[in-house]
Amino acid sequence: MTAIAPSILAADFSRLGDLVREVDRAGADRIHIDVMDGHFVPNLSMGSVVVKGLRPVTQKSLEVHLMVQDPGKFLEGFLTAGADRVIFHLEVEPDPRPLISRIHQAGKKAGLAFNPDKPVDEIAPFLGLVDLALCMTVFPGFGGQAFISSSIDRVRQLRELIKTHNPTCDLEVDGGIDAVTAPGVVAAGANVLVAGTAIFGAKDGPTAAVKHLADLAAHAAKSWA
Ligand SMILES: O=C(CO)[C@H](O)[C@H](O)COP(=O)(O)O
């Protein structure tokens, strides 16, 4: 089954709790929380207070995507606030093993992300250690960007690596995922879809958008399962 992970970066923050309850009820598997530091990416977003505020709002897992230069510095704060899964970038931690251990020692799940210009096979040595590999399908920093079409081949390549090194590892994609791009990435092997604009900016509202993405993904998954 493909998991849908609404990215709250695109949500109306004046109604954040209600919107998270809505996507939870609509069937979202997890809530994706984008943390930006203005260094690793040219933008600022939110910190652990948002995780703390959302923790009582949903039982679904809270997934923190650290787009920051020094993830180790902020890790404890997010874990204490209630994060269930913490994802950080291979670009800033070329040896990610110590951070992965710290996350696992806290009883939480660890994810490793990489940008569209990083050779996919560089993640291979660490796939056996993580619960999730995040293939960025835009350069991180801003929501609402166009999906980079060459990502399809990268997802396919990552799926092959995951089959070899750790078949239970999630393959997540993030950036420009919508009703048009979702079927292609799922057919290529993605099983977790992060979507911000396509869900919180949807004309028909987040509930319809979550259900539509889930239906499209379920259909596309049949082509590779
Ligand atoms: O990581 C991100 C930006 O760096 C966002 O999660 C991602 O871009 C999702 O937003 P959208 O679905 O609007 O593209």
Give me the secondary-structure category.
alpha/beta
Distance between the termini: 9 Å
- Identify the strand order in the major beta sheet: 1-8-7-6-5-4-3-2
The CATH H-level superfamily is Aldolase class I
- Integer-rounded radius of gyration: 16 Å
Find the CATH topology: TIM Barrel
* Global geometry: globular
Main sheet attributes: strand count, strand direction, barrel closure = 8 strands, parallel
| Mean pLDDT over all positions | 97
Keywords: Carbohydrate metabolism, Cobalt, Isomerase, Manganese, Metal-binding, Zinc
Family: Belongs to the ribulose-phosphate 3-epimerase family.
GO molecular function: D-ribulose-phosphate 3-epimerase activity; metal ion binding
GO cellular component, one term: cytoplasm
Task: Write a brief structural summary.
One of its GO terms (molecular function) is metal ion binding. The protein is an alpha/beta fold and 225 residues long.
